[in-house]
Write a structure and sequence with these properties.
Layout (H helix, E strand, L loop, with lengths): L3 E6 L10 H11 L3 E3 L2 E2 L4 H4 L6 E2 L5 H9 L3 E2 L2 E6 L3 H18 L3 E5 L9 H22 L2 E5 L8 H8 L7 E6 H6 L4 H8 L3 E6 L4 H7 L19 H8 L6 E5 L4 H15 L2
Parallel strand pairs: 1-2, 1-11, 2-5, 3-4, 6-7, 7-8, 8-9, 9-10, 10-11
Helix pairs in contact: 4-5
Amino acid sequence: MGRIAIGMNLEAIRRHEKPFEWGVERAAELGFEYVEPMVHWGRELMSEAHYYHTVSMWDDPYRIRRAVEKAGLKISGLQAHGPICRPDVHGDYLKQAIRYAAECGAPVVNTDEGIKAPWTTEEEDHVLMRYTLYEAAQVAEPRGIMIGLECHAQYSKTPEGLDRIYHLVKSPAIGINLDTGNAYLAGQDPYAWLERVLDRLVHLHAKDITVQHSEAERGKVTGTPVGCGCGDGVIDWRRVIQILRRCPRDIVMSVECGSTDDAARSIKHLKAILAE
């Protein structure tokens, strides 16, 4: 069976208005082993001014590699979300993210189907998703990069819907990045879903949901940007880890929460369970 490790998704510093390097250093201070950076295309004010954590793919990929190695950490994956059902928006972006991952040292690129175009049908969207994923897989396969499909939007909000996307393209480069919080908020059983995709799992977003958030939005939304600290909400992390222990490959639980305080509580809670 594979090894389970704990990482910090750098969304945890989004509200701190700090740059990427600050987030990497903070993750190391908190005791995380991995980080999950987010990349974007082009230039924009907030990250260039060091108020935001994303890294432009116009920057040298070694910016990420050097910062992570300096902190003694590793990269679990790149967060490169966008609508794969809109090739005009996400096709070249996703392929560039895969090439970028190969250079910066990220084994997985995480994405989802995103918000669809308002004028396309469901069948048309699946043809468009197949186009995007086929093109991306041709870039990912020779580089040994995995594409992690996440449950996050209109078609991936159910296990059947995520499976349909996964089966659009037959490629060893395509796997699943399950988000426990998104699965729960979509009204699904996150543990049964994790069992269902365990042999295809390449990454995990460890997202917890507060009771208040659950009562307000469960069954009404398909996901949420970040959750609360792991152990502060409704997700049973002992049960999640018990399932993950049977995963055939190494898996990083990338904590996706809203602050470094949440991240600190998360790693304490998860490490205690892993040590049991």
